[in-house]
Amino acid sequence: MKNKKQKKSGFTLVELMVVAIIVAILAAVAIPLMTGNTKRAMATEADAGIGTIASAMRMYKAENGSYPSAISAITNTVSAADLDGQFFDGANYSIADEVITCAGNATSGKGDGEGKANGLTTSFDVGEGTWSRNY
Asked: How far is CA 76 from CA 13, 20, 40, in A?
């Protein structure tokens, strides 16, 4: 009887190493891109809160003739609970000289988002309509 060679199936070590290198390269490229998207998402939450405050400021000016100097002046329209989000709390927003600022800190946000916006600052000048972002 003749011995027939059996075919061995599977991958060689070289093939497995090539796949591992390709996966490592893709991860090295993708991770920084996703980190940037997360910061933009945080900034978008801040922008939404600032937009809410800006609308209330415009209503205040229509009724009183000038913009309010503090958020406390518009609490009948916007409460701190209206501004609470995953990355920012109502306490992160402030008004000074027609400029609304949202600044993240180590305790801002809630749940998994708490403290992740630390150092992120977004401002909107209501009078001029200009944005300033630092993230």
From this structure: 69, 58, 30
Q: Which CATH class is domain 13-134?
A: alpha beta
Domain ranges of the chain: 13-134
Average pLDDT for residues 102-110, to the nearest whole number? 90
Closest CA to 115 of 96, 87, 89, 92: 87
User: What is the chain's Cα-based Rg?
Assistant: 26
Q: What is the pLDDT of residues 44-91, one digit of tens each?
A: 999 999 999 999 999 999 999 999 988 888 888 888 888 888 999 888
Short-list 105, 99, 104, CA closest to 123 = 99
